[in-house]
Request: fold
Amino acid sequence: MVELPSLILEAPMFSDLTYREAETLARHMQVYRAEKGVVIFREGEPSDYLFLLLSGRVDIAKTDQSAESKSFAAIGPGKILGEMSMVDGECRSATCSVLESATLAVLLHESFLLLVKTSPMLGYKILLHIARQLSQRLRHTSSLLVDYLP
Reply:
């Protein structure tokens, strides 16, 4: 089986890390397996971790004003999820469920703070990647919402 540092480097978000940096990050992560139908996190729940999807597919859904759950994305391997709650400490903004059996590498907020303390440059790189991802998502969302403005 491929080792976690190699899988981390396959993720577009972390492809510019060195192998040594990927090893350091891997030491701060825990790997879990989740079967189809498992809810990884629910909208509104408090949380303090992000995860890198190593294999499988997950669904992202949000509850609308009439309390109906609406799926808006299916995410595949190599993507990071849950970064907003880890960074801002707020409750989950959506629900994440497993569509196809998945393997996840989890980074707890506490582990991230330790990583930043012991490897500040790596922590900086990860935060920069998270900021870029959040910016890209905001730009995408803004372009979708512009058609609904008066």
Observations:
- The longest helix spans residues 120-145.
- The two ends are 54 Å apart (CA to CA).
